[in-house]
Amino acid sequence: MSVEAVAAPVEVAPPLRLRDHVIRGVACALVVSCVVLLATFLLVGERPGSYADLRAAVANGQVADVRVEGGLDDGVVGASGVSVHWRDGLIRRVATVTEASSRRQGRLLGSGGPVVVGRVDDSLSALDPGLRTSRTGHQPRSDFGAWRVPRWANVLAIVTVLASFGLLVAGPKPRLATRWAWFWLFCVAPPLSTLAFLLLGGSVVAGQREHRGRRLTGGWAFLLSIVLKAALVSVAAATV
């Protein structure tokens, strides 16, 4: 008696439609955008710092270079806000200081923060004569969460998050988690959480077989997002 082997049916993914190609193309472009943003945050992004901490670090020889943006021109009477930039280990820092021609001008025109009579770079160089300083004009920057980044990066981040949210709402049913679940996870730490949705939610591989396993639901994702957000806040506070 012979036994005839029966091959198990193979599930074949449906052919990609034009809509799937469009979704995949948009998702891939958004992945590239997220990678560019993350690299920008790491390479040129800055965290707020304290001018008092900067002075202490300069006096201890822990800072080699300081860059000052803006300030008063020579011979000008008044006060002007300047941004002081330096590196604290692997983290770039920025502090806002009022540079004034006199203490009185600083009190009258200052913003309530630290006031330096004269040039900020001269005041810092007095603490460490070997300190390298430079002065430049103001460069447009804006805040994105806890980071201060070039203005173009902030605009790109907003466009990327909104476009990814559009994929979440109008795109194919996401994998691993429901739409509401991905929505709550979206809010944890964009653009990192945005990148996680694009790579794990299925938009990059649009048109694949539907995920039939259990998916994270909105309620559990909401609780998870609270835990993750609290952990990230604790980490951010430790680096301030």
Describe this structure in words.
- This protein has 240 residues and is an alpha/beta fold.
- The chain has two domains: 18-44 and 149-238, no CATH class; 46-144, no CATH class.
- The protein has eight helices and eight strands, in the order H-E-H-E-E-E-H-E-H-E-E-E-H-H-H-H.
- Strands 1, 2, 3, 4, 5 and 6 form a six-stranded mixed sheet that branches. A two-stranded antiparallel sheet has the order 7-8.
- Helix 1 (18-44) packs antiparallel against helix 5 (151-170) and helix 1 (18-44) runs antiparallel to helix 7.
- The longest helix has 27 residues, at 18-44.
- The N and C termini lie far apart (78 Å).
- Residues 5-12 have low confidence and may be disordered.
Short description:
The N and C termini lie far apart (78 Å).
SSE ordering: HEHEEEHEHEEEHHHH
Largest sheet: 6 strands, mixed
Shape verdict = elongated
The total of helices stands at: 8
Count of all domains: 2
Q: Give the end-to-end Cα distance, rounded to a whole number of Å.
A: 78 Å
Global Rg: 26 Å
Averaged pLDDT: 82
Secondary structure tally: strands:
8
Which band does the percent of strand residues land in?
Answer: 15-25%
Question: Which regions contain 5 or more consecutive residues with pLDDT less than 50?
Answer: 5-12
> Structural class given helices, strands, pairing?
alpha/beta
Percent helix range: 40-55%
Task: From the structure above, extract its key features.
2 domains; two-stranded antiparallel sheet; elongated
What's the arrangement of secondary structure elements?
Blueprint: H1 18-44, E1 46-48, H2 51-59, E2 65-70, E3 79-88, E4 91-100, H3 103-109, E5 115-117, H4 120-127, E6 132-136, E7 141-144, E8 147-150, H5 151-170, H6 179-186, H7 192-200, H8 218-238
Parallel strand pairs: 1-4, 2-6, 4-5
Antiparallel strand pairs: 2-3, 3-4, 7-8
Helix pairs in contact: 1-5, 1-7, 6-8
